[in-house]
């Protein structure tokens, strides 16, 4: 089980890495980038050990660097682009720092990174992945041009703006699909189950990515999910929380921070200032432990209890919020241990449109905990079944008799979760085909017993419902909030 879980965690990370929001003025996934933060703090002013104005002070290493450049320029067989060589040296220097969160961005990379920070961009409103060299719609954003035009998950975009997309890769496809608000683009769509291609002309719009979603779980018991922290998150959370409170939020609040990779520290602090009782939220410490900043809340304690849902992908700014609520508030954490990223990055502009994302501080929870590399331990541990955890990232392409591997295994587990009886573990046998045929028949599809795009769409729709109905972490949170009395006075009683 542990090996299979690790495989799917790796598989999920790979899928996230190729998932792009094509509404883009740039790609909306730095995320996955996923754990980057942008800080409003000034850059550090600690005493420097070297005088960079006189490179000779760096000693022998600087001389070696200059010698290598000279030998390349004088004796290397092929033509050299020295600007490119220098950029490579810069990136090599950052690799030597051994901090994956400190990074150099060229002009295009910076544009993409800032998309995530602002949360708004121009485009058509789809997320895409690459399957067998083809560009496939993973999902459409509600209210976007793609949504209005009737584009669905599973649609394959063969051409965009007259350019063939197959084999280009996700990034190149993203560049073609994105564009200025008001501009138009024609897409050729291959739809599962349809022979002829669709031709749809869409007008790009300025799209704002929503990061806060709320609903009533039960009367008086509200649910708010924050997917990441961009420049609109604090404002959106404040508006939705206020609306819920005015409409009868009394029994409790479930704050879902699962799969939240972080984002802007200042936006997490804005949310914390609304629900963390008066006092410290977090403190940021720099080199040698010097305190750079302390963030405070002045909010009164809420009259209702709070449960925070977390998992292994809750990171960074999400951990700032969760840690403050766990340390200082009538709130408990439910789920599994968080990611453990407790450093803060500052985006510093460089010449030529470039930028440096630089780690400048680490943060501590109000009780002084340093969780970097450790994560937050939940007060109540509840594991999530693999099918419910990874169904959104399951898109293996066609599967049929004789196929074998982890993708078949997950398909079988998904069918079992829905009440069907597939065959041998990891092997697509007759029993698996029979179970899949039963599912296809129930979904109104041709019962071929083979897994294809249409089956994927139907399976995902069923799992969207199942995930909400059977989510054990969410169900446990509801149970805790419905316990009588002021249960939050003792966390040990809540488990």
Note down, in words, how this protein is organized.
By secondary structure, this protein is an alpha+beta fold. It folds into four domains: 2-30 and 123-208, PDZ domain (Pdz3 Domain, Roll); 55-99, no CATH class; 212-342 and 361-385, 2-enoyl-CoA Hydratase, Chain A, domain 1 (Alpha-Beta Complex), CATH 3.90.226; 386-470, PGBD-like superfamily/PGBD (Muramoyl-pentapeptide Carboxypeptidase, domain 1, Orthogonal Bundle), CATH 1.10.101.10. The chain has 15 helices and 22 strands. Strands 1, 6, 7, 8, 9, 10 and 11 form a seven-stranded antiparallel sheet that branches. A six-stranded mixed sheet has the order 13-14-15-18-19-22, sandwiched between helices. Strands 4, 16, 17, 20 and 21 form a five-stranded antiparallel sheet that branches. The radius of gyration is 25 Å and the shape is globular. The two termini are 25 Å apart. Mean pLDDT is 85; it is low at 1-41 and 490-495.
Per-chain topology:
Layout lengths: L1 H16 L2 E2 L8 E2 L1 E2 L25 H16 L6 H16 L5 E3 L1 H12 L1 E4 L2 E6 L2 E7 L4 H4 L7 E5 L2 E2 L5 H8 L6 E7 L7 E6 L1 E4 L3 E7 L2 E6 L6 H14 L5 E5 L8 H11 L3 E7 L5 E7 L8 E5 L6 H12 L2 E5 L7 E7 L5 E10 L15 E2 L4 H5 L15 H12 L12 H13 L10 H18 L1 H10 L9 H4 L1
Parallel strand pairs: 2-3, 14-15, 15-18, 18-19, 19-22
Antiparallel strand pairs: 1-6, 4-21, 5-12, 6-7, 7-8, 8-9, 8-10, 10-11, 13-14, 16-17, 16-21, 20-21
Helix pairs in contact: 7-8, 8-9
């Amino acid at each position: 089980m542990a090996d299979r879980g690790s495989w799917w965690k790796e598989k999920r990370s790979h899928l996230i890495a190729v998932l792009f929001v094509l509404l883009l003025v740039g790609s909306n996934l730095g995320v996955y980038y996923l754990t980057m933060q942008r800080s409003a703090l000034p850059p550090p002013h600690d005493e420097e050990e070297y005088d960079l104005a006189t490179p000779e002070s760096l000693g022998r290493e600087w001389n070696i660097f200059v010698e290598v450049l000279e030998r390349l320029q004088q004796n290397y067989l092929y033509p050299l682009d020295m600007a490119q060589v220098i950029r490579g040296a810069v990136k090599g220097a950052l690799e030597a720092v051994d901090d994956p969160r400190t990074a150099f961005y060229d002009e295009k990379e910076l544009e993409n990174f800032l998309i995530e920070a602002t949360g708004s961009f121009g485009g058509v409103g789809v997320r895409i992945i690459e399957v067998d060299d083809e560009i496939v719609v993973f999902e459409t954003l509600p209210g976007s041009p793609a949504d209005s035009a009737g584009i669905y998950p599973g649609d394959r975009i063969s051409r965009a703006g007259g350019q063939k997309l197959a084999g280009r890769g996700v990034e190149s496809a993203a560049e073609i699909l994105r564009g200025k608000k008001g501009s138009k683009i024609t897409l050729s769509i291959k739809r599962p189950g349809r022979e002829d291609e669709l031709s749809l002309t869409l007008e790009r719009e300025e799209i704002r990515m929503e990061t806060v979603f709320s609903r009533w779980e039960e009367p008086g018991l509200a649910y708010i999910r924050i997917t990441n922290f961009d420049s609109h998150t604090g404002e959106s959370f404040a508006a939705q929380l206020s609306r819920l409170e005015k409409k009868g939020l009394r029994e409790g609040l479930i704050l879902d921070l699962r799969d939240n990779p972080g984002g802007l520290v200042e936006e997490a602090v804005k949310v914390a200032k609304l629900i963390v009782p008066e006092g410290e939220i977090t403190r940021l410490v720099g080199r040698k432990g010097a305190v750079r900043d302390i963030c405070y809340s002045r909010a009164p304690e809420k009259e209702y209890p709070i449960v925070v849902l977390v998992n292994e992908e809750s990171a960074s700014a999400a951990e700032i919020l969760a840690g403050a609520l766990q340390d200082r508030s009538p709130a408990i954490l439910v789920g599994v241990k968080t990611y453990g990223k407790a450093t803060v990055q500052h985006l510093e502009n460089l010449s030529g449109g470039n930028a440096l994302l630089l780690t400048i501080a680490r943060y501590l929870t109000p009780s002084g905990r340093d969780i970097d590399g450790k994560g937050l331990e939940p007060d109540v541990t509840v594991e999530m079944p693999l099918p419910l955890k990874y169904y959104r990232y399951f898109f293996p392409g066609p599967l049929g008799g004789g196929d074998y591997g982890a993708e078949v295994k997950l398909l079988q587990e998904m069918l079992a979760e829905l009440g069907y009886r597939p065959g041998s573990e990891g092997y697509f046998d007759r029993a698996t085909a029979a179970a899949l045929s039963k599912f296809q028949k129930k979904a109104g599809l041709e019962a071929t017993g083979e897994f294809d795009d249409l089956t994927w769409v139907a399976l995902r729709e069923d799992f969207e419902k199942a995930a909400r109905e059977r989510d054990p972490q969410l169900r446990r949170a509801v149970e805790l909030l419905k316990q009588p009395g002021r249960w939050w006075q003792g966390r040990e009683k809540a488990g």
